[in-house]
Amino acid sequence: MKPRIVRSIRRLFLLLAGVAPLAMTACDDGFEPLLWGNFPDTVELYSLARGEYVDRPGAYDLLDRQGVPVVVEVDSRRRGPFQFDFAVTEDEAGTFLLLPTGVFQEATARPGLIADSAASFEGLSRAPRDGYITEEAIPADTTVVYAVRSRRAPNGCLVYGKMEILGMTPDGIMTIRTLVNRNCGDRSLVPNAPEEDDEDAGEG
Questions:
Q1: CB neighbours of 194 closer than 8 A, spacing ≥ 6?
Q2: What is the C-alpha to C-alpha distance for residues 81 and 87, in angstroms, rounded to an integer?
Q3: Cα-flanking dihedrals φ and ψ of residue 6, to 5°?
Q4: Which of 17, 95, 104, 176 has the maximum number of C-beta atoms within 10 A of its C-beta?
Q5: Which pLDDT value is given to residue 64?
């Protein structure tokens, strides 16, 4: 990514330097694992390179305070700085890029992504332990699946998920699909909740 683009995005984040970080409670502190089902989340993210999207969500947070991943506005003063795991931007040619928060020098968290060209979204069953890209812009590619690792929560937890890009528009909007395992440190991407029985689903 061009240095000028990085500097311009960094200036955006420096505006947040005086905002106190908000506490995150995404990981459960109990002893029993959280049950989670096969319910992918499909959302739109807006390019940080576009001034008209300054009030639109341009980043994704795997560690939201409510315990579920959400899209966020990176310049919102309702949140602390760098309270997200990756953002979306474009280079001068209009090519979409994924930005782990480690791209920005001021960030101390190190979430990351890994592109897997061999797996399908449904077929990626376990996130890697290592090898995540944490400090470089990553080309956005609709033909791969990304394993995603969150930043570290205040209680020390990391959570893992997977993401695929469903579409990218000329006006700077990216549609993604994600599935996140909220259990602390669990790299499995296979939901652990029992499937609903069809007969039970029809009773009522």
A1: none
A2: 13
A3: -60, -45
A4: 176
A5: 72
Residue 16 scores a pLDDT above 70: no
Q: Give the DSSP H or E segment for 199.
A: helix 198-202
The gap from C-alpha 106 to its chain's centroid, in whole angstroms, comes to 19
Residue closest to 88 by CA, chosen among 34, 137, 23: 137
Kindly state the helix (H) or strand (E) to which residue 7 belongs, with its residue range.
helix 3-14
Across 56-139, the runs of DSSP E, i.e. the strands, are 59-61, 70-72, 86-90, 96-100, 112-116, 138-139
pLDDT of residue 5: 53
Residue position matching structure tokens 């699946």: 145
What's the predicted TM-score (pTM) here?
0.79
Interval 58-77: pLDDT, tens: 999 988 755 455 677 665 55
Largest CA distance in the chain: 60
- Identify the residue whose tokens are 């990304």: 146
Q: Which two tokens stand for residue 55?
A: 């009030």
User: What is the arithmetic mean of pLDDT over 100-109?
Assistant: 78
Mean pLDDT within 120-141: 96
